[in-house]
Structures are given as C-alpha cells and as structure tokens.
Amino acid sequence: MQNQYMSDKKRIIIFDTTMRDGEQSPGATMSLEEKIQIARCFDELGIDVIEAGFPIASPGDFEAVTEISKVLKKSIPAGLSRATKKDIDACKDSLKHAKRFRIHTFISTSPLHMKHKLNKSPEEVLGLIKESVTYASKFTDDVEWSCEDGTRTDLDFMCKSVELAIKCGAKTINIPDTVGYSVPSEFKKIIETLVNKVPNIDKAILSTHCHNDLGLAVANSLAGVMAGARQIECTINGIGERAGNAALEEVVMAMRTRNDLMPYSTGINTRLLSKASKIVSNATGFPVQFNKAIVGKNAFAHESGIHQDGMLKNRNTYEIMTPESVGVKKTSLVMGKHSGRHAFRDKLSDMGYVDVTDDIIDIAFGKFKVLADKKKHVYDEDIAALVDDSLIKEDNLIKLKSLKVFAGTGEPQKAIMKLEVMGEVKEATESGDGPVDAIFKCIKKLYPHEVNLQLYNVHAVTEGTDAQATVSIRIEENGKTTVGQAANTDTLVASADAYLNALNKLIIKRKKTAPEPMDLSGSKYVREKDGTI
Ligand code: KIV
Ligand code: ZN
C-alpha cells in the first residue's frame, strides 16, 4: 500500500486504532461480536489500515485480530507488537488469514523511557530495533515501526533510529506523542527534521500518532501532515489511553473543509462518520459528548435566534460543512400513531436499515405503535433505538416477562419481576438501595450469578420528559466483559433489559472455547508479574 500512496503525494492514509489504543481507554472493552461489527463498518467507511488489537496481550485480543482480519474486504488489518519475537509471532499468526497485513512494532526511544521503563542503553535499543524490524519483515513487506514517547526523544537519536528501522525494512515510520505533551509548532519541527535529515526517508511513509492530554491531538496530527507526514493514526470519537487519541472524524473533516489550506485527500466516505461514531459509542458504552465536533448531538444544532435567522437566509452564515456530509440527517418529525407498516418499512430503509429481517421489522413495528401511543413526537432517533433494541433481543436466553417497581421516599424500593429463564418462567420480589438495585437483585435471584457491574449509563434518545431512555451496562466475570443496551420510555424497564442483554451475551461468551490457531494458555504467551507478556 505504501507504494500506491507514495506516488500520490496528497493522499493521507487513515490508520484507525479504535480497537487497540481506543480499547485501552479505561472501561472501553468491546466484545468480539462488537469488534466485528465495528470492523465491517470501518471497512465500508474507507479506513486504509485497521489496527485490530495487540495479539500477544490476551487470547481475546488474538482471537479478535484473527476474526477481524477475516472479514475485512478493503482495509488492511494490523496488529501491534513490542520489539520481541514472541510478540511479532503472535501478530503474524493472528493475521495469517488476511491477503495483506501489517505488523506494527514499537519500542521507546526517549531517555526517560529507555532508562526507567526499559532499563536499556540507547545502543541496546538500536539493537532491538534492528532485530525486531528485520524479523517482522520476514513475514510481510508492510512493517510499521514506532518510537514510543517520540516527542520526548532526542532528535538526533530519533533520526538514527528511524534510518535504521527503514534500512531493516520498515515502510511506515510512526511518531507517537505518547503522553500528549507536544504542541503543533514542535510536532511540525520533528517531522520536518526527519524529512530533511534522514537519508533514506523517501523509502517510508511518515505517520502521526497524537494523544490528547492537552487537547492538541488533532492540531498536532494536522501540523505533522503539513510538515510531510502522510499517515494519521486516530480513533473514532477520539477514544484512547487517558484523554484519548486524535479523533478520526475531526482530522478527516478538517482536511476536507479547509482543503484550501490543507490540500490533502483521504479514502473516507464521510457520510458514514455519524454511523461509525454511534456504533463505537454503543459498543464501548462511552456516550459522545453533546458538543463533540462533527459527531456530537449539537454539532449542527442552531439554538440562538440570530443564528437560526441567518441559517434560514443562507446556510453558509453559520454552517462550515453540511450535516449531510457526515451522515447526520436533520431530526424530522415524520412518523406518528397513524403511520402504517409500509411507511415504517420505508422509513427504516431511508435510515439505512436495509438488511433487517421481516421478523425484526414486525417486532419493531409493534413497539413503534406502543411508543407512538405514549409519546407525542416520534423522531428518527426513537425508531433507530427501537430497531437496535429488537436486534439486540433476538437471541436472548433470559427474557423479561414483566416488571413492577415501587419507588419513592420513605419505603425501601421494591421490584417484582417475572423472567423467562431458558424457557422457564420464574418470579421474584426483592427490595434494594434504590429501584435499579432492587431490579438487579431480582435478576440475580432468578438467575444466580456473580458479576462486577462496571458501568451503568442512562441517556435520553431525544428531548422531553417522554423521551426514550437508552441504558448501557457493562458487566465483568473472570476478566470477560460484555456491554448490554436497551431503550424504553420507562428507564427502569430499559435498565432491566440492558442488564439482561449484557448477561445473555456473557452466557454466550462463557460457552465459547479458546481460539483455535494458537494455544495462548501455555508458557508461550503468558502475562508476567509486572503485567507485561
Ligand atoms: O501512544 C503510543 O505511543 C502508542 C504506540 C504503541 C504506537 O500507542
Ligand atoms: Zn497511543
């Protein structure tokens, strides 16, 4: 792929690391099924390289990289590895089903990291760069090398390391601002120095990987591009370690909108950005902040009278890009209780739900009728929540049959619940510290299990007190996590459904065996006491 884009000097390679660096956000674990759904969406979105995981890190990561590499049609799958043979072996083994793949290997090069993290001299680090890049190049001609903590690395040493990595076969050189410490002028200078001083730099593509600790990840990435970088590493919604990574949707739309100043192109179909943002948010359970650039709920909302007046006269007065260009349709009040099945089906296909089965449409339509009776305005977002909820519930082993909740001041809150547990209907009554606690206790009584509740998140799908609530829940059992979601105008019913959805996924996950291609439980890939592998 390098050669293809090296001839087009204005083409920026988009390298997505949502499922690797993004998943390193505390609490952002995604299930295999969710990762596969994300991978399919990213492939369609036009992402060039998808870093699917860190295969050595866990059997789950190994399996995810393997399965993702099988479903990608256009995007190139990549796996991360440290500068060791066993890491690189795990990468190439997990990626072996893909026609083309990338091995991304890294080592720290800053004085601070070399001394305190690696306990190695600069010469020893150079030795490891040579060994690891040469070894990885045996398995693919698409090797990427990263100097971790690049922006705190001595520039002469960085030039030496980069020259060596290219000599050993690296085709992409990635400069991470690992701790989000750099500023645009400094980051630009680093890239310019590499362009001007590394003799074989024309044999590789320079890449940016900026973290957002100072809120500068996007600005630094673009400064890198203006200095000569031709790959940006980024994540959807900007998720990632600590404050996150450069947001994919922001770098792409910045280059598109200010093409007069940044005349670069990408392969991204920007109309799918909003969809990708929603899928990632649903899988991670991380809501997108309302004022988030490009994909936030308010990114195209004009509230003030002066702005609304300007917009009506000419959209350009307050709109620098159209909502349609990122796949946001203006919320429209289109469906009501008199709308029929046909209109409902047409609406779904307008909203991009083309592969939904008749059964799911029937279920969702039934729920739509109930909702339209209860709720004054039914928006597109409400319909999307109904269909997503119906899709989620398709294979549930445990189903909610009925729920009554007693809440309020004074009395302890109480829930009476009927569940169908693998075909058998059971009932329980429990009180708790709040109605949600009482509901979760009922579920535990009817289907005894021990899990850690890691996340409980409620947000309204649309405005108003009659809005549907979407509840996201993440539970964990022996290191396995699942995220459940549900929507309902009754927040407590949505809470019960979301918990059951996460639990159903966990039951399915329990049944799954370890990945076939490699036994990671043996001594070859084990986690050491310090947390490394
Ligand atoms: O931030 C970082 O340094 C990384 C590397 C592994 C590329 O994520
Ligand atoms: Zn990173």
Describe this entry's structure for a reader.
Helix content is 39%, strand content 20%. The protein has 17 helices and 16 strands. Helix 7 crosses helix 8 (184-197), helix 8 (184-197) runs parallel beside helix 9 and helix 16 packs parallel to helix 17 (491-511). The protein has an eight-stranded parallel beta barrel with strand order 1-2-3-4-5-6-7-8, surrounded by seven helices. Strands 11-12-13 form a three-stranded antiparallel beta sheet. The chain is an alpha/beta fold and 533 residues long. Residues 513-533 have low confidence and may be disordered. Strand 14 and strand 15 form a beta hairpin. Bound molecules: 3-methyl-2-oxobutanoic acid (KIV) and zinc ion (ZN). Residues 21, 106, 146, 148, 174, 176, 178, 209, 211 line the site of 3-methyl-2-oxobutanoic acid.
Task: Please report the total strand number as a whole number.
Answer: 16
Radius of gyration: 25 Å
**Main β-sheet description:** 8 strands, parallel, barrel
The CATH topology of the largest domain is: TIM Barrel
Strand content: 15-25%
Indicate the low-confidence ranges by residue numbers: 513-533
Name the structural class. Answer: alpha/beta
- Overall pLDDT score: 88
What form results from the Cα inertia axes?
Answer: globular
Q: What distance lies between the first and last C-alpha atoms, to the nearest angstrom? A: 31 Å
